Amino acid sequence: MSPLAAREATDADAELLLAWRNDPRTRQASRSSGVIDLADHLRWLRGVLASPDRVLLVVSEDAGPVGTVRFDREAPGEWEVSITLAPESRGRGLSRAVLAEGERWLSESHEVHVVLAAVHEDNAASAALFERSGYVESAPAEDGFRWLRKTRG
Fold it and tell me: What residues does the N-acetyltransferase domain cover (predicted)?
């Protein structure tokens, strides 16, 4: 496996990110499970890219993009993370490295004390990923999602 590198997403990533977002397995684990059309996605993407409180990263290996990590600032030093692997990258053991690369990028460019993750109760793989990455249960489940938290030194 080649080393992973994160970069900020751009408008040029719109169709790739939309394809990953509309993948059935991705939708199943999302808070919003409907199919998103291109116009709505472009509106969302431009809003994310323009926001100082959101970071959207594309994580790649030498062969190309393998996933995306988004961070939303909830409070000073507190971020919520969301991770999506490209459908063709699943099953390769990349999720932990993608998450770690996203966390590394964020901590080098922003103040980070706490990172939160909302994980669908039926998504055992995602829960295991965050737990292996140092996240612990932080609040009772609500609306079908568990909340995990990672505190950074």
Answer: 4-153
Percentage of the residues of the chain whose pLDDT score is greater than 90: 65
Count of domains forming the chain? 1
Its sign, for the CA torsion 115, 43, 28, 56, is negative
User: Which CATH number covers residue 144?
Assistant: 3.40.630.30
Closest CA to 69 of 112, 124, 122, 39: 112
Q: Which whole number is the average pLDDT over 38-52?
A: 94
Q: Which domain holds residue 131?
A: 5-151
pLDDT digits (tens, 9 = 90+) for 6-24: 999 999 999 999 999 887 7
